[in-house]
Design the sequence.
C-alpha cells in the first residue's frame, strides 16, 4: 500500500472506532445511573461503619451533568473496547511479521483478562480504602465528599491495580524480545516482592492486612508465573542455538 492508501485506511479505521465509541457512550448514558449507584455504595457504608453523616456533594450547578457525562464516556470506552481494539489491530496487523502477530495476539489474550481481574480486585478492596480514609475525620464531623473527586479517586485506584496485574505480561514480552533473561528476573525476586507489598500497602491502606494480601498474593504468583514462562523460553532458545551451532560445526567439517 502507498502512503496515501495507508492514510485512507487509517481514516476509515478511526471513523469506525469513533462510531463504536459514540454508540458505547450513548449506552453508557443510560447505564450511568446504575454505575454511579454501585460506585457510591462505599460512601453509604460509612454511615453504618462510623456512625457519621456521609453524603456525596455536588459543589457546582453543572457538577451532576459533568459527572454523568464522564461516567458515560468511560462506560462507552469499556463497552466499545472490542470495536476500537479490533480497528487498531486491523490497521497494524497487515504490517507485522508472523512472529510479531503471534506475540501481539498472545499479549492481548493475556493482558486483557489480567487487567480486568486487577480492576475487579481493586473494586473489592475499594470499600476498605474509603472507610479508612474517611475514618481520619473526627467522629462528630460529617463527611461531605465531592462527587467528581470521588469518581476520579475510584477510577485511579481501580485502573492502577488493573495495570499492576498486567506488568508480568510486559516482563514476559521483554524476555521474548531478548531484553532481560529469566535468570535476571528470578535474581530480583526479593526486590520484586518488596515492591509488590509496598504497592499493595499503599493502594489498600486498610486497618487489617486482609485487603493487602488479597492483592499481593496473586501479584506475586503472576510474577513467578512470568519467570516460569521466561525460563521455558530461554531454555528453548538455548536448545535452538546449540542445535544451530552443531549444524554449523557439521557443515564446517
Sequence:
Amino acid at each position: 500500500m502507498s502512503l496515501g492508501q495507508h492514510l485512507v485506511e487509517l481514516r476509515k479505521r478511526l471513523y469506525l472506532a469513533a462510531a463504536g465509541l459514540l454508540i458505547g457512550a450513548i449506552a453508557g448514558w443510560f447505564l450511568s445511573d446504575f454505575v454511579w449507584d454501585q460506585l457510591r455504595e462505599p460512601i453509604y457504608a460509612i454511615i453504618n461503619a462510623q456512625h457519621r453523616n456521609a453524603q456525596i456533594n455536588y459543589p457546582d450547578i453543572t457538577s451532576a451533568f459533568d459527572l454523568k457525562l464522564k461516567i458515560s464516556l468511560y462506560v462507552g470506552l469499556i463497552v466499545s473496547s472490542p470495536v476500537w481494539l479490533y480497528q487498531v489491530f486491523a490497521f497494524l496487523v497487515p504490517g507485522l511479521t508472523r512472529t510479531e502477530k503471534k506475540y501481539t495476539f498472545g499479549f492481548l489474550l493475556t493482558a486483557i483478562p489480567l487487567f480486568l481481574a486487577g480492576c475487579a480486585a481493586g473494586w473489592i478492596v475499594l470499600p476498605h480504602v474509603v472507610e479508612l480514609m474517611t475514618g481520619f475525620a473526627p467522629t462528630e464531623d460529617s463527611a461531605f465528599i465531592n462527587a467528581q473527586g470521588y469518581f476520579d479517586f475510584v477510577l485511579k485506584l481501580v485502573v492502577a491495580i488493573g495495570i499492576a496485574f498486567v506488568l508480568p505480561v510486559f516482563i514476559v514480552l521483554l524476555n521474548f524480545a531478548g531484553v532481560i533473561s529469566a535468570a535476571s528476573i528470578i535474581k530480583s525476586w526479593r526486590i520484586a516482592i518488596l515492591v509488590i507489598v509496598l504497592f499493595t500497602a499503599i493502594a489498600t491502606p486498610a486497618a487489617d492486612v486482609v485487603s493487602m494480601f488479597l492483592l499481593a498474593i496473586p501479584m506475586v504468583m503472576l510474577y513467578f508465573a512470568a519467570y516460569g514462562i521466561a525460563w521455558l523460553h530461554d531454555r528453548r532458545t538455548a536448545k535452538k542455538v546449540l542445535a544451530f551451532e552443531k549444524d554449523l560445526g557439521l557443515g564446517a567439517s
Summary: The longest strand covers residues 54-57.
